[in-house]
Design goal:
The longest helix has 22 residues. The protein folds into 3 domains: 51 residues, Arc Repressor Mutant, subunit A; 41 residues, Homeodomain-like (Arc Repressor Mutant, subunit A, Orthogonal Bundle); 156 residues, no CATH class. It has 276 residues and is mainly α. The protein is 45% helix and 7% strand. The radius of gyration is 24 Å and the shape is elongated. Helix 4 packs antiparallel against helix 10. A 3-stranded antiparallel β-sheet has the order 1-2-3. The protein binds a DNA duplex (21 and 21 nucleotides) through helix 3 and helix 6.
Length: 276
DNA sequence: AAACGCCTCAACCGCATCCCT
DNA sequence: TAGGGATGCGGTTGAGGCGTT
């Protein structure tokens, strides 16, 4: 399945900034006939551009439903939250922000938002916070105790720590930066609901890490209840890991209510240490 | 006023994925 | 099922604006 030659490769097609006349031609054509068939569109619309260029111009600039102007504080908060979950999935993030394009959000991230967590000591692009790493680990110590309890192998546990770090960053954005809460403010999601997501959740084993909505001062970590029922020496972690390479997950044992495996620890000292 | 550097953002590039035949 | 065109997506580029020296 080779890459087809793009019409943009052809000679004599105009590139660079669009003129008012070109914009008018494109808008007028799309208003009349709609869009689609981008490859054929430029010729039909009388434009000396490649289809790709026309599509980009329309979706990123000329579309009538595009919201212009600065991003509100709430929009920025939403982007930060969604980015902490989805990473550089700009189209996914844009789908939550009506009137904003993926390109616009990507630009905003690269020019402004990316710097915010870094300035505060977090680097969202690396697996661990830069300056609060040790503090974070000390608060994650109870998780390490779970290693024996759950027969975790270390790499899988580290994935969990990574996930908790991402979740902690989300908390931090709310409590330290005190940005307004958006509809997309994450609670820490049960990981088994995120198997199909990309980094950092897709490959994670069987701990659930999530916040308690009526008690924002703590993070709850407990074993997946279904894994509590696993017996016969097969650890939940290895069971999960062996299934992670395939979409077909093994049938889970009957669910039991979590009990002694529930662990609660306080996050607030961590946040207060970060206050300027 | 000129030179320089930084920032912004529209536009491009190349690869991935979808979808039709 | 494979091939190939169409479209989507994310990374990158570069022109232009603006502030500083």
């Amino acid at each position: 399945m080779g890459r087809s030659p793009s019409s943009c490769d052809e000679i004599a097609l105009k590139r660079g900034p669009w003129t008012l006349e070109e914009d008018e031609k494109l808008v007028s054509f799309i208003t009349k006939y709609g869009y689609g068939r981008w490859r054929a569109l430029p010729q039909l619309a009388g434009l000396n551009r490649c289809g790709k260029s026309c599509r980009l111009r329309w979706t990123n600039y000329l579309r009538p439903d595009i919201k212009r102007g600065k991003f509100s504080q709430e929009e920025q908060q939403t982007i930060l939250n969604l980015h902490s979950i989805h990473g550089n999935k700009w189209s996914v993030i844009a789908s939550h922000l009506p009137g904003r394009t993926d390109n616009e959000i990507k630009n905003l991230w690269n020019t402004h938002l990316r710097k915010k967590p870094i300035q505060m000591g977090f680097d969202p692009m690396t697996p661990m916070p830069t300056i609060y790493k040790n503090t974070l680990y000390s608060h994650l110590h109870p998780l390490l105790n779970l290693q024996n309890l759950l027969h975790f192998d270390l790499p899988l546990l580290e994935h969990q720590l990574e996930a908790l770090q991402m979740a902690t960053l989300q908390e931090y954005l709310h409590h330290v930066l005190q940005l307004p809460i958006s509809p997309f403010t994450p609670t820490f999601r049960p990981l088994q609901h995120n198997r199909n997501m990309s980094f950092p959740f897709a490959h994670l084993p069987d701990l659930e890490v999530y916040g308690v909505s009526d008690d924002p001062t703590s993070t709850v970590v407990h074993r997946r209840p279904d894994m509590a029922a696993v017996s016969g020496g097969q650890s939940g972690a290895s069971m999960w890991a062996s299934s992670s390479s395939s979409n077909a997950l093994p049938p889970l044992p009957p669910v039991e209510a979590p009990s002694a495996d529930v662990l609660i620890f306080d996050d607030y000292s961590f946040f207060s240490e970060m206050d300027p």
